[in-house]
Amino acid sequence: MNFFRWAVKELGFSKSSRYQKQYINETNIRTGIYMSFMVVVLELWMILRYIHQRPGRTPLEYFDGETNYLILFSAGLILLTFAWRYGAGKKNFTAGKIISAAVIALDAVMIARYVILHGAEMTTGQLFFGMKYHLLLIALAFSYLIYELIIGKKEFRTDIYGQMLNIIFAVICLGFGIETSLYDISRERQILCFITMVSFVACMLIWKPYVSLILLGATFLYFYYLWLPHLEAIDAAGGKVKDGDSINFFILWIVLAMISISIYHQRRLESEKDEGLINANKTLNRVIQEDDLTGIHNMFYFNQEAVEVLNDPSVDFSRKIFLFLNIENFKTYNDQFGYQAGNEYLQKLAEVIRDTFTGDPVARQADDHFAVLTDVSGVEEKTERVRDVVRSNDSEIYLELKVGGFRPPSRDVDPRMAVDSARYACSRIKNKYNLNYKEYDEEVDSRFHKNQYIVNHVDSAVKNGHIKVFYQPVVWSDTREMCGLEALARWDDPKYGFLSPGVFIPVLEEYRQIHKLDACIFEQVCRDMREAMDKGKKVVPVSLNFSRLDFELMDAVSVLEGYVEKYRIPKDYLHVEVTESALNENTGLLEKSMDRFHADGYSIWLDDFGSGYSSLNVLKDFSFDVLKIDMKFLTNFEKNGKSRIILDTIISLADGIGMKSLTEGVETEEAAEFLRKEGCGRLQGYLFGKPMPLEELSEKIADGTYTVSSKLE
Ligand code: C2E
Ligand code: CA
Ligand code: CA
Known about the structure:
This protein is of the alpha/beta class and 713 residues long. It folds into three domains: 16-278, no CATH class; 299-439, Reverse transcriptase/Diguanylate cyclase domain (Alpha-Beta Plaits, 2-Layer Sandwich); 466-702, EAL domain (TIM Barrel). The chain contains 25 helices and 14 strands. Strands 6-7-9-10-11-12-13-14 form an eight-stranded mixed beta barrel, surrounded by four helices. A hairpin with a 3-residue loop joins strand 7 (482-493) and strand 8. Helix 2 (18-53) packs parallel to helix 7. The protein is rod-shaped, with a radius of gyration of 47 Å. The structure holds ligand C2E and calcium ion (2 copies). One calcium ion (CA) is lined by residues 486, 545, 577, 607.
């Protein structure tokens, strides 16, 4: 079995890869150039010598004698032309057509002369056998002409064609060697021409071992068969050559076969090494260029490609646009179907994006984010095509494609910055229903710079007292006396003026700086309260807003404790407000902090209940003292009968599980009255007062606008 396998491999029967075939074929065609060049020069010299030695003939008469030189010369010329045009990678090679046509014409003359000269005395079979090399030459020239006319243009199967031409040429060479040497033998000369030609064919060209065994075997046996009568004739005349010459002859055969086989294996080994190297290189390139999840390019490659595109002088950079693609709500998809399904979805989508923007740089940036550099024209139609695929996912989940665009202002724009700007433009339409495309424009730009400003200046704003606390009253629904305050942050900026939390809070959260602001608010609230107490004023509890990130970015409990101790604040005068969405995402960390707050004696209020993706589980898993009902239930309160039912239900629910309730955003007397009747204890809203600075609040307490309640619970 092993021997069999070894033999199959040694004899060249085992399958070679495409690359190996190509490698050997190309080596052969290259060698073909040297070989045929030598033949052409040598034979030209022989032809000229032949003519020179036979002066005074008419041109046609020269065809009647030795035409072998001419045949070999023509065959060499054809092969040389083919190999040269192949190496030069020409598509349309007129010289090739002319040469092959000329060779066909020349050969036709030779055949005609042969038939005229020998036609009468020979049978048809003898005639054909006599013209075998003429016919091979015609076949060679025709094949090449067909290649020139049809096949070469399509670059179709050039390798097989090259092999075929090589084989015909090799057979002509061998035939020439046999014929010439037989002629030499008849003149008692050596068989050097035969030896030259077989060495030439066996060693210059690379054959599969079994092919070279067959080719050389047939040649050697055929020649020996023709040579034997001469050897015997010499021995019969008293010579002693047959034995020795036969042995030498067959040893030569074996040696040549071995050389040929060893050349083949050497070349094959080379090609294997080469292929290994090329494959390793390919893998390396893939690693550097590809995104491993989706197989499309990564940002490293994208940036290089984008630079190339923009720097191409034939490209009008002002007609190009960078796109940032984001799938909204993809997280829900992942949560519902798991990461595996999410990954498969991204792979499919990556393909769609790549195929939609064919020829353009396309890459996956991270998560469900993709980057594209494409033409401005057609951008809407193309993104719409991708959007259709995003929307038509076969789940029930709502997925939407959000796209941000950025037009490069110059050729040398940094692609990373361009994609970042497109991403920012895209973030402007996050969660905005019906807004799916946003280009980076002046408005986005100024917002972008404002955001950068906020992030870069939060520290100095805290230090220089630009962060202020505004207080909004909370009242008892029955007496309307003030029972609490909510501390709300304001940023009074020297450059931008008054900034509202709706602007700076999301930015500080995105850049994970929110804890700096919150700690600053906590301290101000404690300081304000200490001052009021020291002045002997009656104080009410203040609720503090905690961002979900406060628990990650600092030890929120200890930070608050620090101020409480420093300013000696009773713990039941501070409430902790956390929003519902914080509880959905965060787990262990937040739970521990909640427990610590409770244990320390703070009450915890659940903010914005009913906004966003509510889950009643939050109520089951955590214990809160007060439920703050989101103000969205009060929008259109007067017209919308459903709001009343919902509010009523939430209040009863809170009551049922032992929680107090507070409704935010109360703006009308009607709403306040309704909530009081339904049993909502606390109210907060513009009806009772907007958030205001401490001085204003003090004035309003002093002038009797607010009565401070003595009741805490
Ligand atoms: P929030 O905690 O739900 O605060 C209530 C918001 O509703 C405040 O907006 C308040 O001015 C507004 N509001 C109160 N009554 C009414 C009303 O009757 N009608 C209407 N239309 N609005 C009313 P503000 O002060 O702009 O704060 C917005 C959000 O910013 C807050 O929502 C809170 O989530 C966040 N925030 C404010 N200050 C801080 C802070 O110090 N730290 C943290 N982490 N977040 C804060
Ligand atoms: Ca709040
Ligand atoms: Ca709220």
